[in-house]
């Protein structure tokens, strides 16, 4: 492991659901401290890419976390390497309270937030600390899902459509939170349909199409050629 290794480096990644070959030779990387967004139409393979990284689908190729090969690692071996996955469905324990959700997870690193630090970052979770997961708003559930991975000590965050279904004011709050995490040096790989949201955060973009990577662009390149997105996303 060298210090210059990207936080996440993927090469020749293929993935399958049963016989269906859904990711075709994906190569991408995310540097330490970088925020990268995966864009693409529904079904392009964005969620499957995140699920492949954490070993939730059958996959082959190479996935290195800070230089360490993890393609054969089961999911429970990944959290100690500093990666945290927040799925689209958020994955909180809905019958437990906010605080129970936060206290249940093991901490893997010194960088793990304490519950007090989580409450400083998410004052509304502190207010709701005795509320059951099912009683939370969509925005609160999303905040709790992100808080849980911070609590585990993850420094590389995989976030699947964190703004989906949320009101604009809450989307703004999530945006502010991600900017803060970025300023703290977190590495973020984001799947996002809301391009206007992603544009305010991301350093780089990958565009996926039919299970392949079609394009990689920096923010500056994207601003110079906005028609690229029309072509792939029809936006
Ligand atoms: N559990 C599954 N079993 C079989 N095929 C699946 C499964 N989940 C997704 N797929 C297929 O895999 C392909 C990639 O889906 P994926 O969910 O990764 O796309 P996506 O880009 O994240 O789109 P979305 O925004 O709709 O989630 C699609 O063709 C989809 O139909």
TrEMBL record:
Pfam families: ABC_tran (PF00005)
Keyword Protein biosynthesis belongs to the record: no
Protein keywords: Amino-acid transport, ATP-binding, Cell membrane, Membrane, Nucleotide-binding, Transport
An MF annotation (GO) of this entry: ATP hydrolysis activity
Biological processes annotated in GO: L-amino acid transport
PROSITE patterns: ABC_TRANSPORTER_1, ABC_TRANSPORTER_2
Domain of life from the UniProt record: Bacteria
Domain ABC transporter residue range list: 8-235
Family according to the record: Belongs to the ABC transporter superfamily.
Protein name stated in the entry: Putative high-affinity branched-chain amino acid transport ATP-binding protein BraG
Taxonomic source organism: Advenella mimigardefordensis (strain DSM 17166 / LMG 22922 / DPN7)
């Amino acid at each position: 492991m060298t210090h210059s290794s990207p936080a996440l480096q993927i090469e020749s990644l293929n993935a399958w659901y049963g016989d269906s070959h859904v990711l075709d030779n994906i190569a991408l990387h995310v540097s330490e401290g970088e925020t990268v967004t995966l864009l693409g139409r529904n079904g392009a393979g964005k969620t499957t890419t995140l699920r492949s990284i954490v070993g939730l689908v059958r996959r082959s190729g190479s996935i290195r976390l800070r230089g360490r090969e993890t393609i054969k690692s089961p999911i429970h071996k990944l959290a100690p390497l500093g990666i945290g996955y927040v799925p689209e469905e958020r994955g909180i324990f809905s019958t437990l309270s906010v605080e129970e959700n936060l206290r249940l997870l093991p901490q893997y690193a010194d960088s793990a937030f304490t519950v007090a630090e989580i409450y400083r970052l998410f004052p509304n979770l502190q207010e709701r600390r005795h509320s059951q997961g099912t009683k939370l708003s969509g925005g609160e559930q999303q905040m709790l899902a992100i808080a849980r991975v911070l609590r585990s000590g993850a420094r590389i965050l995989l976030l699947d459509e964190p703004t989906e279904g949320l009101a604009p004011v809450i989307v703004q709050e999530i945006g502010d939170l991600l900017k803060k995490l970025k300023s703290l040096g977190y590495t973020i790989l984001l799947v996002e349909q809301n391009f206007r949201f992603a544009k305010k955060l991301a350093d780089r973009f990958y565009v996926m199409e039919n299970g392949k990577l079609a394009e990689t662009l920096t923010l500056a390149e994207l601003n110079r050629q906005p028609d690229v997105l029309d072509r792939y996303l029809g936006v």
